[in-house]
Amino acid sequence: MIAPIPGPPDWSLDWKAIDAGCPWLADLAGCPQAPEHHAEGDVLVHTRMVAEAMAAMPAWRALPEGEREVLFLAALTHDLGKPATTVTESDGRIRSPGHSLKGALKTRALLYRAGFDPRKREAVARLVRYHQLAFHVLDRADPRRAAYRASLATRCDHLAVLAEADVRGRRAGDLPELLEDVALFAELCREEGCLSVPRAFPTVHTRFVYFRAGNRPPDVEVYDDTVCEAVLMHGIPAAGKDTWIERNGEGWPVVSLDQLRAELEVDPADAQGPVAQRARELAKEHLRAKRPFVLNATTLSRDLRNRWIDLFADYRARIRIVWVEAPYATVLERNRRRSAPVPERVIEKLIDRWETPEPEESHRVDWQCA
Fold first, then answer.
1. Which of its termini does the chain have fewer beta carbons within 10 Å around, N or C?
2. Helices H, strands E: what count in the chain?
3. Other CB atoms within 10 Å distance of the CB of residue 177
4. Beta strand 254-256 with 293-296: parallel, antiparallel or unpaired?
């Protein structure tokens, strides 16, 4: 546990203990917010008010203890990305573009290094990632698609609770409108069958194609024309990807970026263009032959994964992401024992940029925690 979670009978918040367990909260002090939306003050003031508001909400109190813990930590971390993204524009407007994604990355890194339970960590980080959706989903070109995507990654009913607390923990003139937006988001998800569960699709291939294509209906099954399987490894260096391949790789050929780095004499801290190009050439050979294979790489960013997934999909591969994870201390210890360890500064940078796979990215995501 990072911070004490309010509980019955009085549901009070022990801010002294919370501040001791969450020293990163201090980083929020002094970070300005747009006064028209946050007249209450800086991000730390707002965060405290959101946590207090959540602790007072009957919907939050009614949840099981583990779910209350996840949501309360999401309340504490939901704006953790603001200090790194907040800008004051030439007209005096204060904005924090991209703070949800930045906050999710920072939350994941903090909780990972702290040894927090991985599944709860991901639940917290993904609530942070999508915490603004309830306010804006109806403004999207395709609100249902946005809600479906969120439902695959997190619980939309939990998003609604977090969003309501986010509204109640501020001072602004548009609070009734924002609360209505939250209610409409929850109703949309309820109507679409994805309020407390992931949105269902006829097949995993239908789901995969739906999120890649433009105007396909979600409930019409897509013909599965895949011709081979491509496994994309995901994990921090020394997390155990090689071990997983040895035990579960079924003897399939492996395109290993570590091996290619050694062959091409490219340092892990240097530009990886030549390594990626060679890996792409080898992957294409397997794909053209309709041969199943494994791509062994870190693929910690979604952008990097998408490049590989686009390639695999172009050759009609069925795509499986295998996410292998080990505790922070274990990763550092294993890396130090390697004959060619990755510089720890590189590992730390990778952890800070770590975007874990979401279900709609591929046909299947397998997650193995050591």
1. N
2. 18, 7
3. 11
4. parallel
Query: Which tens digit of pLDDT belongs to each residue from 111-140?
Result: 999 999 999 999 999 999 999 999 999 999
Rounded Cα gap, residues 282 and 273, in angstroms: 14
Nearest one of 159, 137, 341, 90 to 238, comparing CA atoms: 341
pLDDT of residue 1: 58
What whole-number distance in Å separates Cα of residue 50 and Cα of residue 169?
4
The rounded mean pLDDT for the chain is: 95
The three state secondary structure string of 230-263 is: EEEEECCCCCCHHHHHHHHCCCCCEEEHHHHHHH
Contact call for residues 197 and 191 (beta carbons, < 8 A): no
Q: Are 71 and 60 in contact (CB under 8 A)?
A: yes
**What is the arithmetic mean of pLDDT over 74-82?**
98
pLDDT (0 to 100) of residue 270 = 77
Tokens 């917010």 identify what position? 33
What's the CA angle centered on 27, arms 53 and 38, to 5 degrees? 45
Dist CA 366 CA 232 (whole Å): 10
Closest alpha carbon to 59 in 186, 192, 188, 193: 186
Query: Mean pLDDT throughout 221-230?
Result: 97
234 touches 321 (CB < 8 A): yes
Mean pLDDT of 165-192: 96
The one-character DSSP state at 214 is S
Interatomic CA distance for residues 31 and 103, integer angstroms: 14
Look up residue 368 and give its DSSP letter.
E
Question: SS3 of 103, please?
Answer: helix
Q: In what order do the strands lie in the sheet with 254-256?
A: 254-256, 293-296, 228-234, 317-325, 364-369
* DSSP letters for 111-133: HHHTT--HHHHHHHHHHHHTTTH
At 293-307, the pLDDT tens digits run 999 999 999 999 999
User: Nearest Cα to 42, choosing from 27, 26, 31?
Assistant: 31
Which amino acid is residue 254, in one-letter code? Answer: V
